[in-house]
Amino acid sequence: MAQYEHLPIYKTTYDLLIELMHVTKDFPREFKYSIGEKIQINIVELLVEIYKANSARDKKIFIEALLEKVQFLNLFLRIAFDLKLIPINRYSSFIEKTSSIAKQANGWLQSISTK
């Protein structure tokens, strides 16, 4: 089984998951089980895609799925921010992390394309 816990992309995503879990638990009830749950599920799916990509021979499909999920996560975060569920300082921190994840995934994609 391939190791994935040491990957910087995994660490960044895991840290983001923990931060988002703390934030979404404080969403008002009307948003906790709609937008909050979508954020949580999406970030967990990001971790699963990282695991799959690291374990697979053909990584491209999983890295592309990971990049798509980052875009969805950014959308959900923007909605939460626009609804005033996330303060601007937390939102900007989350977007920095999702940008970092996307950059790392793109770098990973480029590295496998050159092989």
Describe the protein's architecture and organization.
- Helix 1 runs antiparallel to helix 4 (88-113) and helix 3 packs antiparallel against helix 4.
- The protein is an all-alpha fold.
- The model has no long low-confidence stretch (mean pLDDT 94).
- It is elongated and about 45 Å long.
- It is 81% helix and 0% strand.
- The protein is built from four helices and no strands.
- Residues 10-111 form the bAvd-like domain.
- It comes from Candidatus Scatousia excrementigallinarum.
- Pfam families: bAvd.
- InterPro entries: 23S_rRNA_IVS_sf, bAvd.
Beta fraction: under 5%
User: What string gives the helices and strands in order?
Assistant: HHHH
Helical percentage: over 70%
Number of strands: 0
Low-confidence stretches: none
N- to C-terminal distance: 22 Å
Main beta sheet strand tally, sense and closure: none
Radius of gyration: 14 Å
Coarse structural class: mainly alpha
Tell me, briefly, the overall form: elongated
- Average residue-wise pLDDT: 94
Tally the helices: 4
Please provide a brief summary of the model:
With 115 residues, the protein is mainly alpha-helical. It has helices at residues 8-24, 29-55, 60-82, 88-113. 81% of the residues lie in helices and 0% in strands.
Notable features of this structure?
single chain, mainly alpha, 4 helices, 115 residues
Give the topology, please:
Elements: H1 8-24, H2 29-55, H3 60-82, H4 88-113
Helix pairs in contact: 1-2, 1-4, 2-3, 3-4
